[in-house]
Amino acid sequence: MHATEDGEQMIIVNGLKACDTCRKVVRTLSEAGHSVQLRDFREAPPSRAEITAWSEKFGAALLNTRSTTWRGLSVEDRGSDPVDLMVAHPTLIKRPVISGEGVLLHGWTDATRSALGLTT
After folding, report:
1. How far, in Å, CA of 87 to CA of 83, rounded?
2. What angle (nearest 5°) sits at the alpha carbon of residue 14, between those of residues 47 and 5?
């Protein structure tokens, strides 16, 4: 859980600042009155512990096998442990991963928006 200086709970959108979906999530949550921050994987990569916890919760859906990074990996590398791959290449994490306010959510789906109290 993350809090602002005044103790207000903050939602962290884990992803990439160049990602249209991540920017849309930040904008939508801000407009809904949430304190929100975008954490760019390239500037502040998640730790192995974070990726492990996310992987345990979201399973294979966390690994983005459609990304440019994935396509650039060798067949041998693609067979590596998914957590090891995401630690080495954080851009392989399918985004966004949304944390804070007592939630850990993945993707920008109707279920995610509903869990955040947003209308679908």
Report:
1. 6
2. 90
